[in-house]
Structure formats: C-alpha cells, structure tokens
Write a structure and sequence with these properties.
It is a single chain. The protein is of the alpha/beta class and 370 residues long. The chain has a domain of 196 residues: Spore Coat Polysaccharide Biosynthesis Protein SpsA, Chain A, CATH 3.90.550.10. Helix content is 51%, strand content 13%. The chain contains 12 helices and 12 strands. The strands form 3 sheets. The protein has a 7-stranded mixed beta sheet, sandwiched between helices. It is globular and about 70 Å long. The protein starts with a helix and ends with a strand.
C-alpha cells in the first residue's frame, strides 16, 4: 500500500516548487525598474574582457564598449587572451592605439577564471565590470550599471541578459528557457537571497574578487556564481539591476549539441555549491521534474497516478505562467508565450537529463575538455 504515501510525498514536493515560484515572482515584481539620471555621479571602472577564439565577435563588443555614453577618462578596457588560436590580433590592430590594454595568459595559465584574475591584477580601478566577448551592449549600459551600483552602494550588481537572433523554433524555446533563468536569478535577489547571476553582465568591488578562492579557481566553470556566493558569504550587498538599458545581448547555441554541452557545463558546478539557498533551489527544481516524469511513467499502469500527474502538471504550468508573464513583459517578448506549453513538456525532461549527466563526466568549452 505504497500508493498513498507516494502521492503525499508528490504533493509535498510539488507544493515546495509552487511556493518557490511564488517567492521568485514576488521578488521580480518587488524589484523596481531603474533609469539613468544626470543627478547620480559616475566613478572610475575597469572593464574586463576575457576571450578565447572570439575573433568573429571581438570587433562588435569592442565597438560597443568604446562607444559607451561614459567619460573616456573614467573607464579602461582590459582584454585578456586565453591562448586563442584564431586571428584575434587583427581585430585589435583595427583599433590602433585606442584605450584597450591587451594581455596574454602565460603557458602556466589557462581558462576564463585565470584570465579574470590576471585582468584584476592589471586593472587600475576599484570597481570592475565583467563582460563576455560574444555579447553586445547598449550605449547607456555602463552608465546605467555604475549609477545603480553607486545609488544602491552594492558590492555586486548583476543585470539582465537576453538573446538576439535565434528566430527558429529551437531558438525561441531556448530564449524562453533562458529568460526564465534570468528572471529566477533576479527574483531570488529581489527577496534578499541571490543564488546565481550571469558573468556577461555584472559589476563588483575589486576587493571582493581579490580574496583567495573568490572564483573557486579549481573548478573550470562558474566564475560568476562562485563570486556571488563568496560575496554573499561575506555579507556583501548584492542587487539585481532591472533596467532595459542595462540588458546585454548574446547569441543562443546554434544547435541541440551546443545547447546540451553548455547546460551540462553550467550544471556541473552545482555539486560544488556551498550556499544553502542555491542547493535548496536546485534540489526542489530537480525533484519536481523527476516527480512529474515518474508520475507520467507510472500513469501508464495506474489511472490514479495519471490523474495526479495531470493535476500537478496543470498546476505547475499555471504557477509558471504567472511568473513568465511579468518577466517577458519586461523584456518585451510576450510573443514567446505561444511556446510556453511545448517548453513545459520538454523542460521537465531536460532538467532531469542535464541534472544527472551534468554532474558526471567531462565537458567541452572553446575547444578544450574541462
């Protein structure tokens, strides 16, 4: 007679998930939108641009950074080459003697984290901005980030990231899923419990990144999340910047293989989390997806389990929809809601698959096995 204990356990897990999404939705709605103001001062800042084999993207991101609506004497750009094997040097030659400091990792150094650490040592200012070489940035991006950080007196500020391109069915599903991650991170920060951020769009106080193991250098992935968790552990102030002008834009993975590889790499760092909030959220999301898959399989043999699966899937979809609507409204991508149901079905499979396989084995990144 294990049927009813299983159903009770299923309801408890589902309820935990629903409460989690409700809290994240509240956190998102509770975060006020910020706009640039001429009344807020600016400060000096170093922009770190680590890259590896990004020759095709470097010109765009460098142009975006050089064209910022920000006094040129108040920021520096430090580009750190992680043993690129392409013609990246030709890109920098196009910009001549403009304010870009190019440094290279030594033979003993490799990886994004080592690039960031070397960039920190070469930086001249106490506030650091982190950008990705394959992203695009609006003209007011830097000013918005800095003014918000000053107004909030924050030790770390992370801002929205969105996709550009990706007009295919797969691209739209990716965009919807990706924005759910961005909204979740923002919502968690909005209730005072930040759990993750995206290294393509954040600024932080240099002093917090210079401590030993701020980035967990021994772990290949997760420079952004481990820095956030390190600052959180030190009781630093962390805020999400909700501003359309602060959005950075990146391209989605080109195909399913690239998508799975990327997500496996992201999930692989979860086993090294020491932040209890991050661990709890990961467990709840995984268990709820695992529960739904298990109930759907059991439903083949039992009408009772099938009914429970349908009930919990419908409730999950309704709760998720309440979360998605304000997030997509902010990004002005409400049209993505037509892909909501397909994503709901695929998402529970994807979470379990990535959660299990991302924990084991090796991953590929920029031509390297990590």
């Amino acid at each position: 007679m294990l049927i009813f204990p299983v159903i009770i356990l299923s309801l408890i897990i589902a309820l935990c998930y629903y409460l989690l999404v409700v809290f994240l939705t509240y956190g998102w709605l509770n975060t006020k939108t910020f706009s640039v103001s001429e009344k807020i001062p600016l400060e000096k800042i170093s922009i770190l641009l680590p890259f590896r084999n990004e020759a095709k993207n470097l010109e765009n991101v460098i142009k975006d950074l050089l064209n910022q609506d920000y006094p040129s004497d108040l920021f520096e750009i430090i580009a750190i080459n992680d043993h690129s094997e392409d013609d990246f040097i030709k890109v920098f030659e196009k910009f001549g003697g403009k304010k870009i400091k190019l440094i290279n990792l030594s033979e003993e150094e490799s990886g994004k984290k080592q690039a960031i650490i070397k960039g920190l040592k070469a930086s001249n200012f106490s506030t650091i901005a982190s950008v990705d070489a394959d992203c695009r940035y609006t003209k007011k991006w830097l000013k918005t980030m800095v003014q918000f950080q000053i107004q909030m007196n924050a030790d770390l500020v992370f801002a929205p990231v969105d996709f550009y391109g990706g007009s295919s069915f797969f691209g739209k599903l990716q965009n919807l899923e990706f924005l759910s991650l961005i909204g979740s991170g923002a919502g968690a920060a909005g209730i005072g419990n930040p759990i993750f951020c995206n290294g393509a769009n954040l600024i932080y106080k240099k002093e917090f990144a210079e401590n030993k193991n701020s980035f967990q250098e021994s772990i290949p992935s997760g420079d952004d999340v481990f820095l956030l968790q390190s600052i959180k552990k030190k009781k630093g102030k962390i805020n999400f910047l909700k501003s359309f002008e602060a959005i950075s834009y990146t391209k989605p993975p080109n195909n399913l293989k690239e998508f799975v590889t990327q997500r496996k790499r992201w999930s692989s760092k979860a086993k090294n989390y020491k932040d209890s909030d991050s661990i709890l959220v990961s467990i709840i999301v995984f268990l709820n997806s695992f529960l739904l898959i298990s109930l759907s399989i059991a439903g083949i043999f039992s009408e009772l389990f099938l009914n429970v699966f349908i009930l919990l899937f419908v409730l999950k979809s309704l709760v998720d929809l309440i979360f998605f609507i304000p997030v997509l409204t902010f990004f002005k991508k409400q049209k993505l809601l037509i892909w909501f149901i397909p994503l709901q079905i695929l998402y529970i499979i994807y979470v379990v698959f990535i959660g299990l396989f991302g924990t084991f084995g090796k991953n590929r990144w920029k031509g390297r096995t990590v």
